Amino acid sequence: MSRISTRDAGEPSRLLRTYVVEDNQVIFDNLVATLEEMTPVRVVGHAADESTALAQLAERCGELDLVIVDVFLKAGSGLGVLRGALQCGLPAPRVVLTNCASDDMRAQCKALGADRVFDKSNDLDELLAFCCGLAQRGAER
Fold first, then answer.
1. What's the half-sphere exposure (Cβ side, CA atoms, 13 Å) at 103?
2. What span, in angstroms and rounded, lies between the C-alpha atoms of 20 and 95?
3. Which of 80, 93, 131, 141 sits in a 20 to 30 Å window from 68, CA-based?
4. pLDDT tens readout for residues 68-114
5. Are 83 and 65 spatial neighbours (Cβ–Cβ below 8 Å)?
6. Which runs of consecutive H residues, i.e. helices, occur in the chain?
């Protein structure tokens, strides 16, 4: 996996205020470090379970630019987070980052409003590119 940052390439982009739903602390810490180093992302919130994520997303509904969700959580699931975000009309793009990115899981996530589904093992570069592209599009508005 290449680690070439696109953060400084081209026109400056804005920081994406990002909320992460991930229950594994090591994965969360590494993800935040990678996102904040390699992309124009600033993680502004985090939850490890569905109910906390839903409560905090409702409180911050208009303040977020991106939500990253894992499917399997300590309590509840990322699918429940996606469902709740869809029902409350959360305007921020939602992406799923999971170890279970089967075709069926991708279809379920998209049906619940996920913009993209990324595999933790194989698609990290694609997630980084997605974040950079999202920030660039936002800066052009």
1. 0
2. 10
3. 141
4. 999 999 999 999 999 999 998 999 999 999 999 899 999 999 999 99
5. no
6. 25-38, 50-59, 78-87, 103-111, 124-139
pLDDT of residue 13: 55
CA 24 to chain centre: 15
Phi, psi of 105 (to 5 degrees): -65, -40
Residues 6+ apart with CB under 8 A from 18: 35, 41, 42, 43, 44, 64, 65, 66, 67, 68, 131
pLDDT tens profile 25-80: 999 999 999 999 999 999 999 999 999 999 999 999 889 999 999 999 999 999 99
Q: The pTM is what?
A: 0.89
Structure tokens at 105: 């899981």
Cα dihedral sign for 107, 122, 40, 69? positive
Closest CA to 14 of 56, 66, 49, 68: 66
Residue 99: other Cβ atoms inside 10 A: 14
